[in-house]
Amino acid sequence: MLLKRTPVKQLLPVMLGALISLAASTGVHADATLDKIEQRHVLVVGVLLSGGPFGGIDPATQKPRGLNVELAQELGQRLGAEVELVPVLPANRVQFLQQGKVDLLIANMEWTAERGEILGFVPTPFYRVGGSAAVLKDSKISRWEDLKNQPVCTSQGSSYIKPLTEFGAEIKAFKSSSESLLALRGNNCVAAVHDATLINPLLADTAEWQGYRAIGPELNPAPSVIWTRRGESDTQAKIDPIIKDLHRSGWLIEAQTRNSITPASPALVELQKQFQANGA
Q1: Could you tell me the end-to-end alpha-carbon distance of the chain, in angstroms, rounded to an integer?
Q2: What pLDDT score was predicted for residue 26?
Q3: Cβ(220)–Cβ(229) below 8 Å
Q4: How far apart are CA 272 and CA 160, in angstroms?
Q5: N or C: which end of the chain has fewer CB within 10 A?
Q6: Which residues contact 145 (CB under 8 A, 6 or more apart)?
Q7: Lowest mean pLDDT among 6-10, 29-33, 139-143
Q8: HSE-CB for 24 with a 13 A CA cutoff
Q9: Are 256 and 140 in contact (CB under 8 A)?
Q10: At 134, is the secondary structure helix, strand, or coil?
Q11: Does residue 49 have a pLDDT over 60?
Q12: Per-residue pLDDT tens over the stretch 175-207
């Protein structure tokens, strides 16, 4: 069950149902976050910069780069606001949002029912991703079930902790994916589990990881969404049409290509076709 890929058209109703609550907003004034963005002309976005094609630091310029960074900048441009990027970690990203340190989270945090209970989110997903495990090439681990009673490294707050626990893995959670991967290289665990879009390019393109391989299929694939605080329906309603247009125009597919994200997400093609067909 955990490994079954769920078609995007089945995932969308779960999240698009949130639009009902958006339509229910009848107040004269926008919610506090949208008011702040429009008044100060600044959008503060929490992003994960721990490495990989979604968010990291360009070694040549020392500036943030990645799909999540580009998405934040594009949102700012469309909202007529300057963008302030705030680095977050899996261990503190929810707290940064809840405490008002950031307006939005675009921080490698996929939608789950549990997260949807404590935070708000933009209904239309901008991506879809699942987990992959890095293990030594000579490891006997070849499938997720082989992780039973084995120490497994991941990030604090990761959506993969629950399915890994159900497989019987012994979780070692770290503040960042970098620390988790370092622990794997130090033989503190038999596998490190993170987004496939982080693990796969790392193993394929990095010399120091040539002694490792990935196991699949993707674990617990889920939609990537932009997170807000609960009740911020005006902010969600303002951003949702922008995400739909980024799908319809092909901007997200181009951003995926620009950032060399592998494996490419078939969800982006499906969503582009959907929004081109219905004009939404």
Answers
A1: 32
A2: 38
A3: no
A4: 27
A5: N
A6: 167
A7: 6-10
A8: 7
A9: no
A10: strand
A11: yes
A12: 999 999 999 999 999 999 999 988 988 998 889
